[in-house]
Amino acid sequence: MKNVNERETERLIDDKIKSKGWNNPEQNVFWQKPYKYQENGKSKTIKPDYAFYDNVSLSPICILEVKREGSSQSTLYKNLQKAIKVCRITNCPVALSTDGYNWLSHHLEFQRDCLHFDKPLSDLPTPEELKQLQTSYFYSPYYQGKILKSARDFVDLLKPIENELRDEGLKKGDERFTEVCKLLFLRLISQPDDPTNSWSKIIEFKKTNPEETKLKINEELAKYRTKYGIDKYGSDINITNPQTINFIVEKFNEIDFQHSDLEIKGEVFQYFLGYQGKNDDLAQYFTPRQVVSFMVSFLKPKLGENIYDPFCGSGGILVEAFDFVHRQIKHDEERKSNLKILQSSFRGQDFATIAYVAKLNMILVGDGHSNIDKCDSLEKKIINEYDLVITNIPFNGKTNHGNNYTYKSNDANSICVQHCLNALKKEKGSRAGIIVPDIFVSSKHYLELRKYIWENYDITIFSLPEGTFEPYTSGKACILFLYYRKKKASKRLTINSERERERESVSSNTTKSSKLVLLSTRKKNQLLTMISSK
């Protein structure tokens, strides 16, 4: 039997139901409607406090469970689990729990809290709001279409677009990628709550001038080309058929990119330049998102630190690091000045034109684009400038700039790592995360450089699973996390593979040469270790 205090909460909810517009013939709200289900071979019945339907639903669109006013968060959470159970039984997307004043929510399709604008849902949704919550986890009057829930959803969107670009005569790989980037950039940079944004202008123009959409697109691109210097990604589009242009615009307009939980540019990059473009110049510059996220969370960049990726590719690492620091900034009187510090704290370089995609990415994530340059990082040494260097070096290449570095070589693996270490400040707290091919920790060719690392840094090594960078390379790789220390301090080595972590300390009187050796094992991941030798 219901607690009398819960009855009071229900009376409060009944008032909300009326005030929120649920008391009309097209809406149906049931109180303690029974639902039968099977559990452990037995037929059972469950009665949620409230089940919300609309005029077309055969199943509820929201289940609400209530508790007495002043219930604890843990009590409301348990109540939410009950609502979720009913949702699973009835194929309902939205579960709510409340004491009349405090609300908890869960969207079963997206597996996350429901949002009202950008804040957690804190009241009973109106019929209009709940209708939107059927296909998204948030409500906003500036709703922009379907939310992409997975990379597969995005691939399904890109396939017909690529077919159109193929029929247009554009070559697979970079040519198609570049045209998609231009239009996608205009879509992503346009804030939905600004009716004068670039994308809105394009959509309105297309309605009355469908054969001339290209003119408006080029006009909007010119603004950003001048403002940001984004090279070919801000140039006029190279699609001639108006129908192809309008098709892509319409496809992008169907999607709410702002609330889709994907690294959109990375997914586009992987699709157009991944398996189909593995021989393309740009294909080597994609680092899997999971690896990037792990590196950044491991190194924990902070506001005020200068952060550098000398081989930034499409900018995935810089974007993740930028976002990591951005989340640390509080909404207080110092926020404006802290945002300026953040925007000036990042630097990225790459010798390929993909550097301009990195610039686009940094513009979209928060305008930290000003220090992204297209250049050969190895040509010029950078000395003691950065608190954190985080990068994925281009594997097993050659360079003409090896004579500029201490351990001279035309081997780019060696020179890339040396460039990173030179750029790092020689003070406590300075650290680097560098993805290198496994050959770097096993070949005698890198022995002297490894000895330098051993003598000057605490080292943590993570062995990455085979196939991590396929299809770009099938070679095995690892991440070197290096922490600068004074030479007299004890040396510390941490070894990590997918299934085990080890830590060992080696005293400072280690014999005079050291080397890294790769040990073969039967485990899925090979164990990397560092040993000293006389």
How would you portray this structure in words?
Strands 13-12-11-14-15-17-16-18-19 form a nine-stranded mixed beta sheet, with helices on both faces. Helix 6 (198-208) runs antiparallel to helix 7 (213-228). It folds into four domains: 4-139, tt1808, chain A (Alpha-Beta Complex), CATH 3.90.1570; 151-277; 281-375, Vaccinia Virus protein VP39 (Rossmann fold), CATH 3.40.50; 389-397 and 429-534, no CATH class. Helix 2 links the parallel strand 5 and strand 6. It is of the alpha/beta class and 534 residues long. The model is unreliable at 275-285 and 497-534 (pLDDT under 50). It has helices spanning 4-19, 73-90, 127-132, 151-167, 174-189, 198-208, 213-228, 242-253, 264-273, 289-299, 316-326, 335-343, 355-366, 412-423, 447-456; strands at residues 27-31, 35-39, 42-46, 50-54, 62-66, 94-98, 103-107, 115-116, 119-120, 138-139, 307-309, 346-350, 372-374, 388-392, 431-437, 457-463, 477-484, 491-496, 501-506, 513-519, 527-533. Helices cover 35% and strands 20% of the residues. The chain has 15 helices and 21 strands.
The computed structural class is alpha/beta
CATH architecture of the largest domain: Alpha-Beta Complex
Query: How would you sum up the global shape?
Result: globular
| Proportion in helices | 25-40%
Average pLDDT works out at 81
Strand coverage percent:
15-25%
Q: What's the tally of helices?
A: 15
Q: Care to count the β-strands? A: 21
The level-1 CATH class of the largest domain: Alpha Beta
